[in-house]
Amino acid sequence: MNALKTMGIALGGLMLTTTLGFAAETAKPTDPEIAHIVYTADTIDIKAAEHAVKTSKNKAVLEFAKDMIRDHEAVNKQALALAAKLKVTPKDNATSQALTKQADATAKHLATLKGAAFDKAYADNEVAYHHAVNTALETTLIPAAQNAQLKDLLTTGLKIFQGHEEHARMVAGELK
Description:
The protein has helices at residues 2-25, 31-55, 59-86, 94-110, 115-144, 148-174. It is mostly helical and 176 residues long. The protein has a single domain (2-174), classed as Ferritin, core subunit, four-helix bundle (Ferritin), CATH 1.20.1260.10. Helix 2 packs antiparallel against helix 3. The longest helix is centred in the last third of the chain and has 30 residues, at 115-144. The relative contact order is 0.20.
């Protein structure tokens, strides 16, 4: 049963990667669309981390989740400040909607888990999620960004999120 749950989370990560990949194959996103995608992706990870803080008893998972909340809230704050400064309104789009839909399905699944099963599924999802977001940043979002300040923010975010991916891999590797 545990293997099935882990497979479900891994498939969710694959669907996320596919969703972000399809977005890359369509028209390049505009800066307002990129801003919305980034804000949505950060918000999704904040919500997942908040759930982990409420659910987990594992010290490593709790510390990781608290780091996710802190870092993703900080990036969202910077992104919103930049959007206001540039007078850009983030624009909802198919990628943001697909991310939200997949996140809802993942959250629903995680809500059924407790204890070690939750910890492992959450950590595995964080690995897959950060990998997908990092790939999208590198291959689609940063290259498509037209505004230099937005591109700089995305590049800085990528460095932070690559650290998150490695941290998630470490936590997931410690869990059974």
